[in-house]
Amino acid sequence: MSESSSAASRDQGDNRTCYCELIANHFTATTPLNGGRRFYKCRHYETNGCHFWEWRDEELPPHVSMFIHKQKLSLNALRQERNNLRKMVDDMVGGKAADVNNVSLEEKVSNLEQKLKRWKRLATWSWILFAIFVAGRMM
Ligand SMILES: [Zn+2]
C-alpha cells in the first residue's frame, strides 16, 4: 500500500456524512471570532434544504481568533499593495524600455563588433592616405 492511499484513508476518517448521505465539504472560517477554524458543511446547504453544518476544530481562544483575523486582513492589504506596485512597474517598464530589455546580449556584442570593424577600417585607410601624402611630399 502506498503512502498516498494510507493518507487518503486517514482523511476518510475525518470526513462527515451529511443528512443527504453525501460527504460534507471542508471549509475554513474567516470571521473575526472564528478565523482559521475549520468546519464541515453540506454542498447543498443553501439549495437542497440539508442544513448539515459542524465545526471540525475546537473553539479557539478569542485573542487567537482575532489575531488570525487581523493577520489575514493585513495579508490582504499587502497583496493589494503588491498588485498596485506591480501595475506601476509594468506601466513604467512598458513600451520602449521593455523592447530594450528584449535585445539579447549576443545582439549587443555583435553590434559593437560591427562598429569596431568600421573604426579599424577607417583608421587603416587614414594611415594609408597619410603615407601616400607624405611620400608624395618627399618626391
Ligand atoms: Zn447534505
Describe this structure in words.
The chain is mainly alpha-helical. It has four helices and three strands. The protein has helices spanning 3-14, 62-93, 96-102, 105-138, and strands at 25-28, 38-41, 53-55. It has a three-stranded antiparallel beta sheet with strand order 1-2-3, with no helix packed on it. The chain is rod-shaped, with a radius of gyration of 36 Å. The termini are far apart. Mean pLDDT is 80; it is low at 1-12. Zinc ion is lined by residues 18-20, 22, 42, 44, 50, 52.
Count of beta strands: 3
Structural class from helices and strands?
A: mainly alpha
Q: Which sequence of SSEs, written as H and E, runs from N to C?
A: HEEEHHH
- Biggest β-sheet description: 3 strands, antiparallel
Strand content: 5-15%
Which stretches are poorly predicted, pLDDT < 50 over at least 5 residues? 1-12
Indicate the radius of gyration in whole angstroms. 36 Å
Provide a count of the helices: 4
- End-to-end Cα distance, whole Å, is 102 Å
Which word captures the global form? rod-shaped
Could you estimate the helical fraction of the residues in percent?
A: 55-70%
Bound molecules: zinc ion
InterPro entries: Znf_GRF
Coiled coil: 68-122
Protein name: GRF-type domain-containing protein
Keywords: Coiled coil, Metal-binding, Zinc, Zinc-finger
Summarize the entry for a quick read.
With 139 residues, the protein is mainly α.
Provide keyphrases for this structure.
binds zinc ion; disordered N terminus; zinc ion binding; 3 strands; 4 helices; mainly alpha; metal-binding; 3-stranded antiparallel sheet; 139 residues; 61% helix
